[in-house]
Amino acid sequence: MDRVLLINIDSTIPNLALKKIEKYHTDKGDEIIWDMPLMYEQVDKTYVSCIFPENREQCQIFEGKALIGGSGYDLNIKLPPEIEEIKPKINWGFTTRGCIRKCSFCFVPKMEGKVHIVGDIYDIWDGVSKKVFVMDNNILAIPDHFLKICSQLKKEKLKVDFNQGLDHRLLTKELWLELISLKHISEIRFAFDDIAYKNTVIKALELMSANGLTDWKTRWYVYIGEKDTFKTVFERMNILRWYKQGVYVMRDRIVKDNPEFIALASWGNAMGAFKMELQDLFRKSDRMYDYMRYFPKELHIKRDIPEGQKEMDLWNRCLL
To answer: What is the average per-residue pLDDT within 180-201?
Structure first.
């Protein structure tokens, strides 16, 4: 019996590669130790997974002593075939891998290749849970497979979250009606990654609106990259808000400290705030009032502060 150390550097969701390794060694009778880096010299084997490139340096102490992989370390490192083929039933996973798109910020096509089927709901579901998370990057690119997955979900009366976002450009009336016939864990997710997709997003929203879309039923990932400006992001958010659909602003690490984009994320990522008129939000939220300077001047307001509050603010500043 071997002692096997698994190190998850930075994944905040179940790490599928490490779960496969865990099952492989557990089935062999090995002892599994999770996330105890100081033990790497006291075990027989060590596996390390790093998802984000900015965390790559945390892998250095394991180099030459462990099998290290993940998109944040080296896209070319693969699991051994006997481990890769394992399908742990943890109610989280993939039924397809790869993607037909080539988004500049995404490593999936390079790492996984063209979209292809790798399983179905019964390869993910443990047979007990009432919820499953489907992590496919572009399941709508194989519509017959998507319909099969929907059929399985309905047969087993499961709630689902297509977590990575669905490709609005591939949506048809048939696929949309099938999608809204399912039970969902949260809002149905899509992506509006670039203002260049404005027309296709509106086309998709019109199709949905004509076929049963209700207010705040969907939530759209709004990616902010290096080429974006406040205007390109604000316009995307306002299109979605006009249709009464939610957003989730995702800032690339290159722009994450930009105060304009922080202001937009603070507005969009809190659904309650996003549903409000901005002027009302500026009146009610001190934080958003501070961000008001980044928004168009026609949205600015003057907010009267009671004399007592002015005196308290002055006193607090003196204490700093």
So the answer is: 96
